[in-house]
Structures are given as structure tokens and as C-alpha cells.
Amino acid sequence: MEKITLNNGIVVEVEDKTVVLSGDLYMIHQEFTTVVKLSEWDSDLKRYCGGDLLRKKRVFKKSAVHERDLEELKGSMKNSYLASTIPYLEHPKFVSCFKKRCLEEFREQEEKARLRMVGHEERE
Questions:
Q1: Has residue 124 got a pLDDT over 80?
Q2: How far is CA 89 from CA 28, 84, 102, in A?
Q3: pTM assigned to the model
Q4: Domain-by-domain residue ranges, the chain?
């Protein structure tokens, strides 16, 4: 796994999980994880994350890639993602907006789970 630390402390983890499909054909599978260290003021997020790191993963797959094109295409996919994402991640307001959005998502998921449980209990 490759780790890229940005100027604002964000870490981008790049993991290649490419697998052989058959013979000379491969499934390119790349995972890019954005990692933000949480502060003491992020207690709500820590509750959802279960620790001091907030992680968000993006997965990109491309199937049926011939072996002769594999390394070039993997490099191209990685470079394209990083070139378009790093300027966004390095924006001064990114960390606060990222934390806010993730907290909203966690709360929405929690509410949906609560509503499913209420609906399940009503059917019984």
C-alpha cells in the first residue's frame, strides 16, 4: 500500500488489489482511501468511527484488461484519480466540510436503521 501525505495532514492510501480473471485477462481493482485525523472536538465522529481516524474509501474497477496493457492502465487510472482529487483535498476548507458531511451521513444511516427497527417491531 502506498501512502501519500498532503500538506494539510490528510493521508491518501492507494491500494492495488488487481486480480487475474483468466489467462492474460485481469480485473484492475484500485482503492483510494482518504484518511483524516480527528481532533478532541470531534467526539461525535469518533463515536461513529470507533477511533481517531475518519476514513472514506473510493473503489475503481476495470475488468478484462489484457496483460500487455495492465501496468500502463493501472498507472493511468491512479494518476488520473490523484491529479483530479489532490487539489480538492488540499483546499483549506476541505477537512471541515469532509467531517461535517461524514457526520451527516453517519446520522442518516443511524436514523434509517432506527426506522427499519421500528418498522420491523410494528410488523411483529
A1: no
A2: 24, 9, 15
A3: 0.84
A4: 2-119
